[in-house]
Design brief:
28% of the residues lie in helices and 24% in strands. By secondary structure, it is an alpha/beta fold. The chain has a single domain, classed as Glucose Oxidase, domain 1 (3-Layer(bba) Sandwich). Strands 1, 2, 3, 4, 5, 6, 7, 10 and 11 form a 9-stranded mixed beta sheet that branches. A two-stranded antiparallel ribbon has the order 8-9. Helix 3 links the parallel strand 4 and strand 5. GO terms for molecular function: lyase activity; metal ion binding; methyltransferase activity.
């Protein structure tokens, strides 16, 4: 999937052409981060991180650690030490449906981290959960190897078998949007599709002109 590295690709374009969108609450801890790669999936009980340690022990370079932490935001399941280990393993980044901590430290580091919340409370290590099985993260079912793409607008996911077609469609849409921006700059302020769309989908408009 070589085009995944194209500078014009974004989560918005991928969402527009059919990628699954994780809940909007999962955001980067620092603006400007972009991550993409195949998912290494982890599920943990609320507030527990033993399964995440198990996943880090087998993680491969380029993978994105995708953690279903049950959406729990009152106890962080990862922080500075574990993210340093993740970076040393060569992971592309971390996406957590739950909380992180050591926010200032993580924002100063290079590893992209996306999470639902930040909390100073640390995790338990009582066990439970899974590594490598399907998880629900941000309301989306994600399987090991599914492709993750994340940026300032949020996180999307898609099956690798759909990857080439989705990325190609997203880049084509990006080119169309670039052309529309050029048209606006030329003063062409009425989209060519608007009249037909209004004819097909009537809107009640007051007489204001």
């Amino acid at each position: 999937m070589s085009d995944i590295h194209s500078p014009g690709l974004s989560s918005t374009l991928l969402a527009d052409v059919g990628a699954s969108v994780l809940q909007a609450a999962i955001k980067p801890l620092r603006p400007g981060w972009v991550l993409h790669g195949p998912a290494l999936t982890v599920a943990v009980p609320a507030g527990d991180n033993l399964a995440i340690h198990a996943a880090l022990a087998i993680a491969r370079p380029g993978e994105v650690l995708v953690i279903d932490a049950q959406g729990h935001t009152e106890r962080a399941v990862m922080g500075g030490i574990m993210c340093a280990q993740a970076a040393a393993c060569g992971l592309a980044g971390v996406v957590i449906d739950g909380a992180m901590r050591d926010a200032q430290e993580l924002r100063a580091a290079a590893l992209p981290v996306f999470a639902r919340a930040v909390s100073p409370a640390g995790p338990h290590k009582r066990g439970g959960g899974s590594v490598g099985k399907a998880v629900s993260c941000g309301g989306v079912t994600i399987r090991k190897g599914d492709w993750i793409f994340a940026d300032d607008d949020g996180v999307v996911a898609f099956e690798p078998a759909r990857g080439e077609a989705l990325v190609a469609a997203a880049l084509a849409k990006g080119q169309a949007e670039t052309q529309r921006m050029a048209a606006i700059a030329r003063g062409e302020l009425r989209p060519v599709w608007l009249d037909q769309a209004l004819a097909d989908n009537p809107i009640e408009m007051a007489q204001i002109r």
